[in-house]
Amino acid sequence: MDDRRRPRKRREENIPRSVSRNNMKRRPENNRHMTLRERRRRRRRRLLIRRAVVLGILLAIVILIVSVIVVSCRHDKKESAKPKDGSEKLLDQYYAKFVEETNAKPEKAGFASWFIKNCGDEAWKKVSGKLKKSSLQEEDFYKITGKTLHVLSDTYKGWLKDDKTAAQRHIYQRKGKEKGEASLLFAGDVCLEEDDFVLDHYDEVGKLDECISPEILKRTNNADVFLLNHEYCISDRGEPLEGKYYTFRAEPKRMELIKEMGTDIVSLANNHVYDYGADAFLDTADLLDEAEIPYVGGGRNLDEAKQPVYFVVNGIKIGYVAASRAEKTRYTPQAEKDAPGVLLMYESEEFIEVIRKASMECDYLIAYVHWGTEDSDQFEDYQHEQAEELLRSGADIIIGGHPHVLQGLEYIDDKPVIYSMGDFWFNHETKYNGLLELKINGGGLSKMSFVPCRQTEYTTRYLSEKEEQRELYDYLEELSNGVVIGDDGVIQKEDDRSSPEE
User: Fold this and answer.
1) Please, which pLDDT band fits residue 306 given cuts at 50, 70 and 90?
2) Are 139 and 443 in contact, with CB atoms under 8 Å apart?
3) CA distance 453 to 475
4) What residues contact 160, with CB distance under 8 A and at least 6 apart?
5) Are 297 and 368 in contact (CB under 8 A)?
6) For strand 397-401 and strand 364-370, is the pairing parallel, antiparallel, or unpaired?
7) What pLDDT score was predicted for residue 37?
8) pTM, to two decimals
9) C-alpha angle 373/376/378, rounded to 5°?
10) What is the average per-residue pLDDT within 278-304?
11) Which of 296, 421, 434, 482 could bond to 453 as cystine, CB 3.0-4.6 Å?
């Protein structure tokens, strides 16, 4: 028996010890067991992914619902800000009356709704409160919003959406240096003539600040709007007008000097801009356009010569118009429907109509005029009478030139008239001159002052010595009617000299 069992034992001994017969039989079952575990693991993973997706979708739905609720609340809040007492209708009626008085036609309805949306609830509360009390005035819009009603209206109509659109309406936007006001600066006559006069001196020294004091140039460049009288043509074409004794023309490159002065606008309403005929005059207009310097008082046709120019500075809209009454023998033509020239005012009616319409489109209107007797420091009776007409028509101030010397100032119905600013930078003669500075706020003119200067030997110099300044102020007071000038150059009506400055 022992022998028969031995071979079996040997077979068992040949099997590796690490693997028993029982283990060999169970291996297929273990493989199936591992496969089921893997399947379960994968199933659990898929389940977790599904749950994560579902939770993500639910979270997104919750966020969407919350967003809708928030927006609805805001909308309800905005809606609640709208008046329930008819104030919105009152503002629309107020605006309709304003539009009717200014002869402007709004391009769309709904000013009140636009105001509430664009100016905010706080501004609306203040405006509606005044509407309920029937105490709303135009000045209140500036106090409440920082913009006058004219500027709000232009914005509402889309005229101020960008600089290009505004320029198409002859409106130019400036950011003012001082909050709540506009600083306006005015010079008298400037003549750039290639043969003799100031350009010869400039060509010798090669620097503008050696011809015009740096203190003056700093002021002209820092002003929100600086205007001068462009009393020459700028061109390389044309011939001098036959029979005219003085004719002035500068080369096109001289436009850089006007830009270097910080010029924002010029008047063409004078007796020398047409000295070399129509071609040179048209070149002057073209070069000013290229330099992006607008002009008033002259143009390629009558409509352009009549066209006012407006500046919006710190929410205030300021208008400029110009006309000339300078020649006893008329060499400079009036612009016509299809012919270039300047706007003349020997008869007042046409210029009065320009002023009337322009005054309805802005908060403060400047009439810059070329008139009076050359080399005389006394203004004429006709100038006073014509000034009365222009101011009654809607001008807020009249600033004059042409006599080449300073003339006096006066107030007519509380509006200032500066009869002549004299020459600013013109020739070799020694004489007083200067700059006129206006501060305009939402209620109109808040301050007017004179910057004392002297022209001498082809230069214009700032008078920095207090004694020299006082001498010039005294000289101007003597020429003026009912005007006092303080040591700081501030000009006031004599009756108002003790009143506090606004």
Assistant:
1) very high
2) yes
3) 13
4) 151, 154, 166, 171, 173, 312
5) yes
6) parallel
7) 67
8) 0.82
9) 95
10) 98
11) 434
